Amino acid sequence: MTETPIMSRGIMWTLLGVVIFGLSLLLISPMIADKGQSSHLEDRLISNQPMNMPSGEMSILPAGNSSAKQSGGSLPGVMLAGVPGAAASRFQEEAPQSVRLQRDAVRVIRDNTPSFSAVAVDLKNNEVIAADENLHQILVYDRLENTPPTASMSEPKRWLGGDETEIEFVCGLHVDPLSGDVYATHADTAAKMLVFSRDQKGNVPPMRQLNTGYMTRGRGIAVDEEHQELFLTSQHNSAVVVFRKLAEGDELPIRLLQGDLTRLANPHAIAIDKTNDLIFVTNHGHVSSRSTEGVDPSTLDPNRPLDRSLAVPGSGRFNPPSINVYPRDGSGDTPPLRIIQGPRTQLDWPSGIGIDERSGEIYVASDTAQSILVFDHEANGNVKPIRVLKGPRTLLDSPVGLFIDKENEELWVSNYGNNSLHVYDLSSAGDVPPKRTIRSGPLGKRALMIGNPGALAYDTKREEILVPN
Predict the structure, then answer these.
(1) 145: Cβ–Cβ under 8 A, 6 or more apart, which residues?
(2) Per-residue confidence at 13, pLDDT binned at 50, 70, 90?
């Protein structure tokens, strides 16, 4: 019998071993895959959990930490990061016990200092009131307070804040000239207007609350004392809504200004010209049309703005920023009497607005232009301001709120970008420094301006975190 050469026998046994090994892999690979996947899924779970952090803090919850803890019950909204849909489904079916992450954040991005979104002056009591949108507070200072350059901040005389107050992203203020009551509005989260008495402080409930409804979240606020009417701007629904001044609870508005003819487009602030019976409204410019076609009229609340659910598809548009002028008692789809709009106006995200009826001048805080613009109250169209307050010496940084103190001939400006309130002479123009400053943070510090962040993204090329607000 002829023997098989040693080399041939070696090749044969090698091939046989490869075949056996391959078959064994086919048999055990699903178990290995499942076991490996299960061992790593716990580390790849991403979940948002309440963390014991001060109000206004923003945290980034990282994946990859293995210190997870098993807990019973379902955890809605859990996402399996990087796991294919089929594998995620199999994991959920085979492992009904949810995994809850108990981890500390690797780092936290937050601003510990108040950021002022609005300002008002109580002339009767010689106090200035500031809205802090960052830490959800209302702070009160002496009107003549002036933070020294060497001081890190000025301590407020009193403050309102905490869960009991229900203050959230407060962005509009009004002070009753007789009682000193403080009215506070919210643009983003809380669909309510809060009223506090002058004597209230700390973490206390408001003395009165108006549930404006999510369609009427008020950004800007103005009160007509003569007619006892309260005006709110509905930013996202491009409307002006009017209530009784003392409205509370679920009371409905008495009047509504909304529609394509109004040319309202993301309105922010509102001011009342008592002398000429007019209202002035600043607009950022983006808007969409509304339609009630096919909607049961009985489902629509009287004088409530039509919300985004009734937006006409494809009607969204970006208009140039503007200041629109209407009759004080205007309602419905009423066109403006005049519009200040165009490149010569220098309007750029116009926010706070005030009127000095004595001089017939309109003051506007132009947020992204870092300026205060002054127009004649009869201005119309693409016109230049009659004077501009702007420049590095002014220390303006995202000015969003203003107040005209006619008794003391002063202009107050709240700067969202550098944690400060500035005071100027009412006639100031050009690049002039403020006459007084109230700071809530160190000199030269810039605010992070994180306000109601809606999402996060990471730019791997620039190694930057992007936070839309």
Answers:
(1) 128, 154, 436, 438
(2) low
Q: Burial, 23: exposed, middle or buried (Cβ in 10 Å; 0-12, 13-18, 19+)? A: exposed
Cα-only R_g, the chain: 30
Q: Rounded CA gap, 178 and 231, in Å?
A: 18
Residue 361, helix vs strand vs coil? strand
- The pLDDT, as a whole number, for residue 308 is 85
Q: What would the two tokens of residue 353 be?
A: 């607005």
**Tokens at residue 219, please?**
């950004």
- pTM for this prediction: 0.77
Residues 6 or more apart in contact with residue 208 via CB below 8 angstroms: 194, 195, 246, 248
Contact 402, 371 (CB under 8 A): no
C-alpha distances in Å from residue 283, one per residue of 249, 267, 341: 28, 4, 10
Residues 65-70 have a mean pLDDT of 35
In this predicted structure, what is the pLDDT of residue 385? 98
Q: Which of 33, 36, 35 is nearest to 25 (CA)?
A: 33
SS3 string, 404-464, reads EECCCCEEEEEECCCCEEEEEECCCCECCCCCEEEECCCCCCCCCCCCCCCCCEEECCCCE
Residue 161, token pair as written in the block: 């804040």
> Residue 134 in contact with residue 53, Cβ under 8 Å?
no
Backbone angles phi, psi at 245, to 5 degrees: -60, -40
> Where is pLDDT greater, at 235 or 33?
235
pLDDT in the model for residue 99: 75
How many angstroms separate the CA atoms of 445 and 398, rounded?
13
State residue 383 phi and psi, 5-degree precision.
Answer: -120, 155
DSSP 172-225: EEEE-TTT--EEEEESSS---EEEE-TT--BS---SEEE---GGG-EEEEEEET
Contact 377, 340 (CB under 8 A): no
Taking CA atoms, 353 is separated from 19, 94, 300, in Å, by 82, 60, 32
3-state secondary structure of 454: coil
**DSSP bridge partners of 425:** 410
Residues of the chain with pLDDT > 70, as a percent, come to 78
DSSP 6-28: HHHHHHHHHHHHHHHHHHHHHHH
Strand partners, 245: none
The pLDDT confidence band at residue 178, using thresholds 50, 70 and 90, is very high
Tell how far CA 241 is from the center of its chain. 20
pLDDT digits (tens, 9 = 90+) for 89-124: 544 555 556 777 778 888 888 888 999 999 999 999
